[in-house]
Design brief:
Blueprint lengths: L3 H10 L9 H19 L12 E6 L7 H14 L4 E5 L10 H9 L5 E3 L3 H10 L4 E5 L11 E7 L37 E5 L6 H14 L4 E13 L5 E2 L8 E6 L4 H10 L3 E7 L20 E5 H7 L7 E11 L1 H9 L5 H14 L1
Parallel strand pairs: 1-4, 1-5, 2-3, 2-4, 5-6, 6-7, 9-10, 9-11, 11-12
Antiparallel strand pairs: 7-8, 7-12
Helix pairs in contact: 4-8
């Protein structure tokens, strides 16, 4: 249950103490981040606009808010309507040509073109050349050089500003890197077209209401959608899928290298499993066989996330996997309306002209 990641989070979450020594570095980061935002807001830094609509799925914090399930949901929404989405990401932590999130997205969205490039504008142009008619950008809210037609920002209800809360009344410390986990000030939500409040099922309704009030104060008039990580199924180590209810009353050991391991553990406990141990690693952790030494054993299920499983399987480790998907509790119709209102891109115009010519 403990580990370097958990210890660091708890250390940063406290107000005062030795963590306060990071305040000068946080102030410097805030100045640089704020100055960059002003330059973009006033048009003094260039923004490149593609001839294909761009939907950005991002957040304000480092760590997990549910971006990958959200990206998968948006791409599937387009696919169901006959569109040709393409994925654009930075390729964080990539070894060679792919990283863990790319492997997971390939598994979730087979056949959907995916370009990884720290230069999102160049990556977007590459996707345009492949014939996609809409680009879904993963984790790009702070990458403002590429114009986006829809900015969707995810906020985790269990830790809105990245760090765990000290009590039920506390929404967490609003601290920027490196004193906290915020990449930019919460006021940046004013740029968003929609805010998706994730994991709303893991906190009390009163807390959800308090967070939403704060989000609307920061971004007046912005659509706020409520979502949770719905459990699609449980994949056993032999590849057989079954109901997550199969975990009820069974001893499990967890391993995870994700942004919010506490939420993963809470989900497993909510299914009635007996969590004996949770070995936590930093987000995007490159696993080695030694990392899981002594963890699994007779009569204990080794359980992990889909994101971790794609990194463990090449090592010959086949855990049980909790498969999740984005599920909406409120505001899905608003989100769909925003997606439907996207402008028509070059590829879609060409297809429309081609069909009109056939009928003409």
């Amino acid at each position: 249950m403990s580990g370097p990641t958990r210890d660091r989070e708890e250390w940063l979450a406290k107000r005062g103490g030795s963590a306060s020594l990071l305040r000068p570095l946080e102030a410097l980061y805030r100045c640089v981040s704020g100055a960059r935002a002003v330059l973009y807001d006033r048009g003094w830094l260039p923004v490149e606009r593609l001839d294909t609509p761009v939907v950005c799925i991002g957040n304000l914090t480092v760590g997990g808010t549910g971006k990958t399930p959200m990206v998968a949901w948006v791409c599937r929404w387009f696919l169901e309507r006959g569109r040709r989405p393409g994925l654009l990401s930075r390729g964080y932590g990539a070894r060679g040509d792919v990283n863990d999130e790319a492997l997971l997205l390939e598994r979730l969205l087979p056949g959907v073109p995916h370009v990884q490039n720290p230069d999102r504008a160049a990556g977007g142009r590459e996707l345009e050349g492949s014939g996609v008619d809409v680009i879904v950008m993963d984790d790009g809210f702070q990458h403002r050089r590429l114009f986006r037609d829809l900015d969707c920002v995810l906020v985790d209800a269990t830790r809105p500003w990245g760090l765990p809360s000290l009590d039920d009344e506390d929404l967490g410390l609003r601290a920027l890197l490196p004193r906290g986990f915020l990449r930019e000030a919460p006021e940046a939500l004013g740029r968003a077209h929609a805010v998706v409040l994730t994991r709303t099922d893991q906190v009390a309704p009163e807390r959800v209401e308090r967070i939403e009030d704060e989000l609307l104060r920061l971004a007046p008039g912005t659509a706020v959608v409520h979502a949770r990580h719905g459990i699609r199924c449980l994949t056993r180590d032999d590849g057989v899928q079954e109901s997550p209810d199969a975990l009820a009353g069974r001893p499990v050991v967890l391993c995870s290298g994700i942004g919010n391991p506490s939420a993963f553990e809470a989900t497993v406990r909510g299914l009635g499993a007996e969590v004996l141990e949770h070995r936590r690693f930093a987000d995007h952790h490159p696993y080695t066989p030694e990392d899981l030494s002594g963890l699994a054993g007779e009569g204990r299920i080794l359980l992990t996330t889909a994101k971790d499983a794609v990194k463990l399987e090449p090592l010959g480790i086949r855990p049980w996997v909790l498969e999740v998907e984005m599920a909406f509790e409120r505001g899905e119709a608003v989100l769909q309306a925003l997606l439907e209102a996207l402008p028509v891109g070059r590829e879609e115009r060409m297809r429309h002209s081609f069909h009109e010519g056939l009928h003409g």
